[in-house]
Amino acid sequence: MNQNEEIRVLYVQPGKYPEEIKIPNTLEIFQKYVCGSIESVRLDRDAYIICNDEGKLLPLPPNRLYGPTDFFAGPFLICGDGGEDLISLTDSQITKYEKKYHSPLIFLELYPKPITLKCTPELYAKCMETSLDKGTQRKTTENELPSLTQCTA
After folding, report:
1. Would you say 36 and 151 are in contact if contact means Cβ atoms under 8 Å apart?
2. Distances (CA, A) of 14 to 46, 93, 141
3. What is the pLDDT of residues 27-73, one digit of tens each?
4. What are 139-143's contacts with CB under 8 Å, separation 24+?
5. How far apart are CA 52 and CA 37, in angstroms?
6. Dihedrals φ, ψ of 75, to 5°?
7. What is the pTM of this model?
8. C-alpha–C-alpha distance, residues 62 and 106, integer Å
9. Residue 61 is inside which H or E element, if any?
10. Alpha helices (runs of H) in 8-120, residue ranges in sequence order
């Protein structure tokens, strides 16, 4: 990683719309944003998703689908592929991936195959509150979701 520059990435958190941000291109910063040790997952020929490699074990809340039968748990970053280094996303990549991951998802069931509904951040928060009242979903509210200030590297 070229540690002397900032890169433009998409930050995708559970229950929220993707956010375009600029961050220092360092391992420590990536770890803070994904709340722990990182794993890189090839998204496309020119982009990677940087996520928590233990997200499902911790357990971090489900975030977005990865293929038809898997999902990312916890927040993740989308970065460009510069061969040896992660690089800034281009304008067209920002548009493409923001559209692909735009809608937050409510996960109704995780196994054997995730069943999801697209929603808004407001509906996501309301559903998490309602499910806590009824005790029907995992016990994580939006206020308990990992945030950058709560993460420890």
Report:
1. yes
2. 24, 20, 11
3. 999 999 999 999 999 999 999 999 999 999 998 999 999 988 899 99
4. 140/61, 142/15
5. 6
6. -70, 155
7. 0.83
8. 8
9. none
10. 27-34, 91-100
